[in-house]
Amino acid sequence: MTAKPKVFYTAVATATGDGRSGHVSSKDGLIDLDLVIPNPITTPKKANPELLFASGYSACYNSAFQSAAKSMKIKLAGSHVTARVGIGPVSMHEFALAVTLQVEAFGIDQETAEQIAAKADLMCPYSNAVRGNIDVTVEVTARESVDA
């Protein structure tokens, strides 16, 4: 079990309405969105919880990736992380998430990028929160330059 953190920031958001077909807003007013239930057939016109989770996880993991490189004294030309968060049934009335993190690392070789990703996985609070609970796949691609 992970140790309880010394919290230095707390995000506060409230969901209202009919479950996933409702509204979410943050106390600070930065988020104020209507939500829809994800539909595998149509493209949603509004946000859904999986999209919000993907946004947070990709930002957090990218920050951890860059911090891991810095702690390993490796100079990155940059990095991008795309999070793909899927949802689906695992049994009757039970759903689960599956995540793929696609990491692009610039200015380093593949082996180094994979070493950084392994360290980032240990540093990222989202990775620590979901470890053992959600299927997460990390795909790492090293590129010579940001333009590659």
UniProtKB/TrEMBL annotation:
<dbReference type="InterPro" id="IPR036102">
    <property type="entry name" value="OsmC/Ohrsf"/>
</dbReference>
<dbReference type="InterPro" id="IPR003718">
    <property type="entry name" value="OsmC/Ohr_fam"/>
</dbReference>
<comment type="similarity">
    <text>Belongs to the OsmC/Ohr family.</text>
</comment>
<dbReference type="Pfam" id="PF02566">
    <property type="entry name" value="OsmC"/>
</dbReference>
<protein>
    <submittedName>
        <fullName>Ohr family peroxiredoxin</fullName>
    </submittedName>
</protein>
<dbReference type="InterPro" id="IPR015946">
    <property type="entry name" value="KH_dom-like_a/b"/>
</dbReference>
<dbReference type="InterPro" id="IPR019953">
    <property type="entry name" value="OHR"/>
</dbReference>
